[in-house]
Amino acid sequence: MERTDLQVGARNERLAYIVERCLESQAAYKLFDMLAAISDLDKDAKGEYMELVKDSGAYSEEEISAIERLIISGTARYFKQVIDQVREEHVQREIDDMLV
């Protein structure tokens, strides 16, 4: 297997882990829902939000950096879409199982 394939596989495993954790935890899901909504705001509003996060003193520099990357890059929106898709597939599978 090529190095690129290994990197893609590792990324997919991390994404699957995040999705599973969000499906197990309502708080984790709400976090990505909130971050996805913020990532949809205009640039100025995102900047204001990040200033509030920094000023709150509730987060370490590393956490602030991670939150900022999720919002600015749109990754939070991507994660939320994947989580919603997997949730929908789980629900559909459960419905199908009930109908059999």
Explain this structure.
With 100 residues, the chain is an all-alpha fold. Helices cover 88% and strands 0% of the residues. It has five helices and no strands. The longest helix has 25 residues, at 75-99. The model has no long low-confidence stretch (mean pLDDT 88).
**Number of helical runs?**
5
* Total DSSP E strands: 0
Q: Major beta sheet, specifics?
A: none
Overall pLDDT, averaged?
88
Helix and strand succession?
A: HHHHH
Oligomer: single chain
List the helices and strands and how they pair.
Layout: H1 3-24, H2 26-39, H3 43-56, H4 61-73, H5 75-99
Helix pairs in contact: 1-2, 1-5, 2-4, 2-5, 3-4
Which features characterize this protein?
100 residues; mainly alpha; 88% helix; 0% strand; globular
Short description:
This protein is an all-alpha fold.
